[in-house]
Amino acid sequence: MSTTAWVLLGIVAAVVLAAIATYNGLVGLRQRVRQAFADVDVQLKQRHDLVPNLVETVKGYASHERETLENVIKARNAAVAASGPAAQAQAENMLSGMLRQLFALAEAYPDLKANANFQQLQTELGDIENKIAAARRFFNNVVAEYNTKRESFPAVLFANMLGFMREDFFNLDEGERAATRDAPKVQF
């Protein structure tokens, strides 16, 4: 074999090895994205399971606030039914808004605020919200890593062709973004 043939064979082998390594890297990252989304999903399910208990506790004290309670349940059901990061993020943001209204409603009922069951549920919900935030951060980091890898050379040459599509982030809606930008007002 001539030197040119060996060089061409070496180039082809290098391209094939690079393609295999890139493909395997994308497969691994796609699996991490799916696992991270499943972790977010587990935390959201815990939150969804807690909401009916919270509503039932509030119902006993604020039965004439029926519309607020029904809206919380509707938002919870929409969040349970949502699929995919974008739809789930939107439904979860709506549920978060409804839960804020529910807790604002509780402020008007001192007996409810003092109820041990309500306090426990509120504490559990706060813990779950922190776990959801951590899971969302992890998911978004993995999605960023995956999208960066898929849009980098040489993966960009064949990622779409091999079915590696861009993944969506689990984002805050505009209302939550505004709430996190504004510092809380403290008065003494």
Features:
mainly alpha
Write the layout of secondary structure elements.
Blueprint: H1 3-61, H2 66-81, H3 85-107, H4 110-114, H5 116-151, H6 174-181
Helix pairs in contact: 1-2, 1-3, 1-5, 2-3
Describe the model.
By secondary structure, this protein is mainly α. The chain has six helices and no strands. Helix 1 runs antiparallel to helix 2 and helix 2 packs antiparallel against helix 3 (85-107). The protein starts with a helix and ends in a 7-residue tail after the last helix.
Number of strands: 0
Indicate the radius of gyration in whole angstroms.
24 Å
Quaternary state reads single chain
Distance between the termini: 88 Å
What's the mean pLDDT score? 84
> In which range does the helix fraction lie?
over 70%
Shape: rod-shaped
Low-confidence parts lasting 5 or more residues at pLDDT below 50? 177-188
The share of residues in extended strands comes to under 5%
What is the structure about, briefly put?
This protein is an all-alpha fold and 188 residues long.
